[in-house]
Structure formats: C-alpha cells, structure tokens
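Title: Request for sanity check on LLM class flavin-dependent oxidoreductase prediction

Description:
We are preparing a figure and want to confirm that the structure record we downloaded matches what your pipeline produces today. Could someone re-run it with the sequence below and paste the raw structure tokens into this thread? We only need the token string, no images.
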Amino acid sequence: MNDPIRGEAGGTAPVPLSVLDLATVGEGRTSRDALTASTRLAVLAERRGFARYWVAEHHSMPGVASSSPAVILAHLAAHTERIRLGSGGVMLPNHAPLVIAEQFGTLEALAPGRIDLGLGRAPGTDGATAAALRRTDRLREGAEDFPQQLTELTRFLDDDFPDGHPYARIHAVPGRVQSERQGRPPVWLLGSSGFSAQLAGRLGLPFAFAHHFSAANTLPALELYRESFRPSAVLDAPYALIGAAALAAEDEREAHRQVLTGALSMLRLRTGRPGLIPTPEEAEAYEFSAVERDFVDSWLGNVTYGTPDAVRDGLDALVKRTGADELMLTANAHSPEARVRSYELIADAYAL
C-alpha cells in the first residue's frame, strides 16, 4: 500500500484525487439505490486509481443515506481490495470515543492498512437531532469539548492511558491490546473554519478542509494550518486535503442540469426544508426568488462542473490557488448514474 497519509497521484493529475460520498437519495429513488450506487462507485474509484474513498456522517436528512459511516465502510471493504476507505467524517461530539475506537479498530481488522479516521467537531445535523444522538449526561457537550474527546479517542486507539487513569484498564477491542501487529487508522481532522485547522497543525495531523461548502474560508484556514504546523510522529510536514464539489458530463448543459439539483436541495436544507434530491426537471422548472437565485448562483460558483476537460482545468486551477496536497471530489446529483458517470469522465480526463 501507499503511505496511509500521502496519496499517490496517478495519470496526469497534479495531486492525488479521492472521493467523498454522501450517498445522496434522489426523488423517486431509495436509500438502497443510493447505497448500491456507493458500492459501484467505490469499485470504480479503486479500479481507476483514486487514492481514497470517504463517507460523511449526516443525520435526519432524507436526501442523505450516510448516517452510519462505519457500517457503510465495512460493506465497502468487502467489495474492494486496495483503495483506502474512511470517514469524512465521523462527528466526534455525537459518539463516545470508546465506541469510535472499537468501530474503527474493527474496520482496521477487516481491512488492514486501508482505513482512515476523519473526525469533525460539528454534529452533522440540527440541534434537536444532535440532542437525540447523545446520552442525557452529554447533551451540553459540544464543539468546545472536541480537543479533550480527541485525546481520549487517540489514547483508546493507541491503548496507552497512563497508570492511574480511570480508563487505564479499559481497552478498545479489536485493537492494539490484542496484537501489536494490528495498526490503527490514521486520524485526520476535518473542518470548515480555523479551529480544526489550528488544532490539526499543533498536533501535526493531516487536515481536510470542506471547501465545497465553505469556500470563503479555504485560504485562511489552510494558511492557519500551515503556520500552526508542528512536526509529529505522524507527519514531518503539513498535508492538506480539500473537499471540492465537481461534476462532469458529456456537455456543459447536462452538467448544469445535474448540479442545479444539488443547489436546489442545499437551498431547501438551508431554509429548513430538507428532502430528497429533486429531479433535473423539477430544478429547472423551479421559480427562484431573487434571494434564492443569489444563493444558488453563489453555491454554483463554488462547484466545478462542465465537460471533462473543463472540470480538469478547474480542478487544476484550484490546486494551484490553494496549494492543496490532495483533492477529494464530491458530486451531488439526483441520479446515481450521473454521479458514477461523472467520476468516470474525470478519471478519463486525467488518464487515471
């Protein structure tokens, strides 16, 4: 396997290309359809030389079927052999650190050397759903507790609580307590602002930034990460991955039809009306108000879409502008076929 942190660029890609999957569910489709497409896409990504395949945790969103990353990753591990699989990310405040250590220790045992543990500090949902996810005594815990939770999780993964610690006799199983030969998944910090960027830098961890929905913060966050970086046992230099929304189709009009479905879905989510991903026909027929049109235009301004060559040029420009070490591409569209086809076309454009 390649270095678990540093991917390997293939074909003519300037940096490694990876996949971020939300398992989106289109109108008239089911979660089964979305997850079946995810399996197809993971197999395709492995065959075409994408570096890694991550699944994002979201809750109470009808149009997103990725509420249980560890379950999905176990399934994908059974259908792939080489590609790195991981979470992009697990939302740490929603879970007890020991549970995450056990889940990802199990994944590491199932797919040795192929698992990444990406962690976020947001709930991946609204406040009411976040409360429903947590035990009663954890309702007041949140992002401010993230560093402490991260330390606890890391100690469970490494099985190295100091003597006298209340958890010193507790072990995450499967994990290192059983065998020193079992590795542990590398931890990545995810973020859409400066907090996780700075924390990742100080801890010497790889950092993944959500450019696809927080583009205005990308350059400041990456600069903060690089300025804050301290060499560690994990990395001797910063490694920054950015998530980028990208969709390719045979012609520009079809690409616009597909990305408009994702833009309308995001508009509804941001205005408290989450639902399934609308069809291209519904999105084209929707009568946007002036305010809604501004939102959609702004959203699409951060999506790289069009013909395969146009998408390749746009992604290359993004790498040049940000200095990213890796791009993780996400494609939100109504149909699974459009999503899978987009990655095929991008792989062709880069000769992967």
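Thanks, this matches our download. The mean pLDDT is 92.
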